[in-house]
C-alpha cells in the first residue's frame, strides 16, 4: 500500500507515525502518510533558506522558467494517474479532477513564462539621480494548502513563488496526502529544480503548520484555507512580522434580477452550487432573487437541483461527487435540519443510501430564509446546501449581497448591461461573474475582501506576494 513520505533537501523521509488516507466515496483505505513534526518543519525551512542564499536560484530566471516547464511536463505525463487519484482520494467527479489537473499544468506554464519578465522600473528623479526599483525574491515561502483542490491550490502559490525566485516548504492537507505525494514525485524529477528548493512536510494536526508560521527561516506564508485558520496564522506570524497571503473562505451570493435569462441562470447556478459537492470557496451559496420572479425561479431551481445525480466520481452518470468524509456528511445533515427549523426547505437533501451508503454522499438542498443574521446565511456551509433570499430592488440586492463578513466571489444575472456593471462595482468582492458563475483560470487574479483574505493569487499580481522591491540609488553623470 502507498505511503506518502516527507520530501526534504531532495530526499524522501519516511519518518513519524502513520495516518490513513481514505476514499470518501467508499470508505476504503487507499494508503498511508507519515505525520511530521515541528522539528521536521524547522529542518525543511532551514534547508530552503540555505538553498535560497547558497545557490544561484534566486537570480536565475531562465532556470526557474525551465524548472516550471519541466514540472508542467511531468504533471502532464501523469495526467491520467493523477486524475484517477483525485477522484479516489478527493471524491470529485472525473471531469472536475481532470479540469483541476489541466488547470494546474496550464498554470505552471503561465508562471514559467512570467518568470522571465519579473520587471522592476528605473527613473531619473533629477539630473544624474538614478533610481532602480529592483524586484527581488522575498526569500523562503511556506505554502499551506487545503484539501478541496489540492493540486490547483498548491500550484496557484508554488508557481508564482518559484517564478519570483523563492524557495519553498509545502504543508499539504492530510486528506489529500497521496495526491500530494504524486505531485512531489513530479517535482523531484525536474532537473532544473535544485535539491532543497521545494520541500514538503505532511501532518494530520497543526504542529507543522504552526512551526512554519513561527519560523525565523520563513519570510512569506502563502495560506489557502478557512478564515478561522487564517486568523490563527496571522496571529502566529505577528511575532516575526512575516508577510502573510491569505486566501480564505467565501459565501458567494448570486443576484438574479427579474430580467435575467432564467434558463441560463438556473443552469449556471446549479453547476456553480454543486461543483465539488459545494466544497469550493467560490461556490454559489446564496441565491438572491427579485420578488417578481421568485416563484418561477424557485420552481425551476428546485427541479434542476432535484435532477442532479449524486454518485461516485468514476461513474460517468454522476453529476455531483462525494463530500470529503463522513464528518462532513454528518455536519451537512445537521445543517439541513437547522435550515428546516429556521427557514423553509424547498428541497430537502439527504443520504442517498443503497450502494452509496458507505460513502460520504448527501443530495443537494435548497431553503428559503428571511433572517439574514442567521448563521446559515452568515457562515460558510461548505456543502450542497443553498439559501434562497428575496429582494425588492437593486439597493436591497446590493445590501444583501454585501451582508456577510466574506467578500470572495459573487455573480450577477441580468440582461441589462448598465445594471450589470453598476451592481458588480457595488458588490465588495474579489471576483464578480456576469451571467455565469465560477470561472477560475491562471491569468485572472483571485482573492478576497473582508474576511475572505489578504492579497491576490493567480495572474501577474500573484507574483507580488513573493517579491520585495529594493530601491538602488546612484548619482552619476553630472561631472
Ligand atoms: P483549514 O483552514 O482547516 O486547513 C487548511 C490548511 O491549514 C490545512 O493544510 C491544515 O492542515 C492547515 N492548518 C490547520 N490549522 C493550522 C494552524 N493552526 N496553523 C497552520 N496551518 C494549519 O481548511 P480546509 O478545511 O482544509 O479547507 C476548506 C477551507 O478552505 C474553506 O473555508 C474554503 O473556503 C477555504 N478555501 C479558500 C480558497 C480561496 O481561494 N480563497 C480556496 C480553497 C479553499
What this model shows, in words?
Helix content is 37%, strand content 24%. It has 479 residues and is of the alpha/beta class. Helix 2 runs antiparallel to helix 5 (152-164), helix 3 (79-90) packs antiparallel against helix 6 and helix 4 (94-114) runs parallel beside helix 5. The chain has two domains: 2-248 and 452-472, Aldehyde Dehydrogenase, Chain A, domain 1; 252-434, Aldehyde Dehydrogenase, Chain A, domain 2, CATH 3.40.309. Helix 8 (227-237) links the parallel strand 11 and strand 12. 54% of the residues are buried. The strands form seven sheets. The chain has a seven-stranded mixed β-sheet, sandwiched between helices. It has a six-stranded mixed β-sheet with strand order 10-9-8-11-12-23, sandwiched between helices. Strands 1-5-4 form a three-stranded mixed β-sheet, covered by helices on one side. Nicotinamide-adenine-dinucleotide binds next to helix 7 and helix 8.
What is the CATH topology of the largest domain? Answer: Aldehyde Dehydrogenase, Chain A, domain 1
Number of domains: 2
- Work out the number of β strands: 25
Major beta sheet, strand line-up: 15-16-17-14-13-19-20
The largest β sheet comes out as: 7 strands, mixed
| Bound compounds | nicotinamide-adenine-dinucleotide
**Computed Rg:** 23 Å
Q: Cα distance, first to last residue?
A: 74 Å
Portion in helices? 25-40%
- Mean pLDDT across all residues, rounded? 98
Amino acid at each position: 500500500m502507498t505511503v506518502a513520505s516527507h520530501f526534504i533537501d531532495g530526499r524522501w523521509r519516511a519518518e513519524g507515525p502513520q495516518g490513513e488516507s481514505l476514499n470518501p466515496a467508499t470508505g476504503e483505505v487507499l494508503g498511508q502518510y507519515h505525520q511530521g513534526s515541528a522539528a521536521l518543519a524547522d529542518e525543511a525551512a532551514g534547508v530552503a533558506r540555505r538553498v535560497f542564499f547558497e545557490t544561484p536560484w534566486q537570480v536565475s530566471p531562465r532556470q526557474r522558467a525551465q524548472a516550471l516547464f519541466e514540472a508542467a511536463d511531468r504533471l502532464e505525463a501523469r495526467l491520467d494517474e493523477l486524475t484517477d487519484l483525485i477522484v479516489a482520494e478527493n471524491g470529485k467527479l472525473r471531469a472536475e479532477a481532470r479540469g483541476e489537473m489541466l488547470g494546474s499544468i496550464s498554470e505552471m506554464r503561465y508562471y514559467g513564462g512570467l518568470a522571465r519578465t519579473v520587471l522592476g522600473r528605473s527613473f531619473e528623479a533629477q539630473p544624474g539621480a538614478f533610481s532602480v526599483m529592483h524586484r527581488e525574491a522575498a526569500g523562503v515561502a511556506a505554502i499551506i494548502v487545503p484539501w478541496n483542490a489540492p493540486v490547483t491550490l498548491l500550484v496557484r502559490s508554488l508557481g508564482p513563488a518559484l517564478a519570483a525566485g523563492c524557495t519553498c516548504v509545502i504543508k499539504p492537507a492530510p486528506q489529500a496526502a497521496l495526491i500530494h505525494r504524486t505531485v512531489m514525485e513530479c517535482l523531484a524529477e525536474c532537473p532544473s529544480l535544485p535539491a532543497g528548493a521545494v520541500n514538503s512536510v505532511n501532518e494530520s494536526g497543526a504542529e507543522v503548520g504552526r512551526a512554519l508560521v513561527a519560523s525565523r527561516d520563513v519570510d512569506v506564508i502563502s495560506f489557502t484555507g478557512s478564515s478561522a485558520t487564517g486568523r490563527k496564522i496571522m496571529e502566529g506570524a505577528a511575532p516575526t512580522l512575516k508577510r502573510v497571503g491569505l486566501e480564505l473562505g467565501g459565501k458567494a451570493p448570486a443576484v438574479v434580477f427579474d430580467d435575467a435569462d432564467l434558463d441560463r441562470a438556473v443552469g449556471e447556478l446549479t453547476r456553480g452550487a454543486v461543483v465539488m459537492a459545494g466544497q469550493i470557496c467560490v461556490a454559489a451559496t446564496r441565491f438572491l432573487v427579485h420578488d417578481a420572479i421568485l416563484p418561477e425561479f424557485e420552481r425551476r431551481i428546485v427541479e434542476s437541483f432535484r435532477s442532479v445525480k449524486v454518485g461516485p466520481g468514476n461513474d460517468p452518470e454522476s453529476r455531483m461527487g462525494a463530500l470529503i468524509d463522513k464528518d462532513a456528511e454528518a455536519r451537512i445533515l445537521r445543517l439541513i435540519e437547522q435550515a428546516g427549523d429556521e427557514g423553509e426547505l424547498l428541497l430537502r437533501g439527504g443520504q442517498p443510501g443503497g450502494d452509496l451508503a458507505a460513502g460520504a454522499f448527501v443530495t443537494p438542498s435548497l431553503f428559503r430564509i428571511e433572517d439574514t443574521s442567521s448563521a446559515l446565511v452568515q457562515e460558510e456551509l461548505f456543502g450542497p446546501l443553498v439559501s434562497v433570499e428575496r429582494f425588492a430592488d437593486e439597493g436591497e440586492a446590493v445590501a444583501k449581497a454585501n451582508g456577510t463578513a466574506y467578500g470572495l466571489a459573487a455573480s450577477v444575472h441580468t440582461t441589462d448591461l448598465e445594471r450589470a456593471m453598476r451592481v458588480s462595482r457595488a458588490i465588495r468582492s474579489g471576483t464578480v461573474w456576469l451571467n455565469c458563475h465560477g470561472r477560475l483560470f491562471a491569468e485572472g487574479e483571485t482573492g478576497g475582501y473582508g474576511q475572505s483574505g489578504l492579497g491576490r493569487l493567480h495572474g501577474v499580481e500573484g507574483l507580488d506576494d513573493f517579491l520585495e522591491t529594493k530601491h538602488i540609488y546612484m548619482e552619476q553623470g553630472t561631472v
